[in-house]
Design goal:
With 221 residues, the chain is α/β, with parallel strands linked by helices. It has eleven helices and six strands. It folds into two domains: 156 residues, Alpha/Beta hydrolase fold, catalytic domain (Rossmann fold, 3-Layer(aba) Sandwich), CATH 3.40.50; 50 residues, no CATH class. The protein is globular, with a radius of gyration of 16 Å.
Length: 221
Amino acid sequence: MTSTTAVLLPGTASDEVFVRSVFARPLAAAGLALVAPQSRSVQEHFAALDAAYDGEPLVVGGVSLGAHIAAVWAVRNPSRCAGVLAALPAWTGRPDGAPAALAASASAAVVAAEGVHAAVAGVDGWVGDELRRAWPRYGAALPAVLREAAVSEAPTVAELRGLAVPVGVAACTDDPVHPFEVARKWVSALPRAALRTTTLAEVGADREALGRAALDALRNA
């Protein structure tokens, strides 16, 4: 892997602040410069990856939805991609019945009807803290962003099988929204992939635990 730049995308209604907290220092230690776009919609995420390419193949990736988009971009642009960092993939192909998609759809309805504070009122711990920090930044666009994410497609198993670059997949073994079995399915389909795990509690205490897991997986892919 010869790339010196990694472009990492946030999960659904998350943001570049969280991406930096997870990846900035682990990437720097690995000799990679982080680009964390301020993109919000699926289309903007794809555009940010296109814009970051300057002739040198990129490491691309992200968290949850960001991982999906980065993997699809890598499938579409194999000559532009040196590797993928996929943290917390939430589904494969269509999102039918996936916990993360159902959560995004339900949250969109609550935000639209009652506002952000009502939607995050019952979310405890560091995840709730992140939502309360990031979601207000979306303003009136938040319900639409959540709905878009809930119906967006991740790479299919066939697409993953055709992705030749190394892929590092990181999963939390105790995350019901991003099931561990999804990460295992990705790794089983990918020709060059490794899986490393952490837990929600570990990420709560140290956001970089997720970034380190993904990078360690990429090194071993």
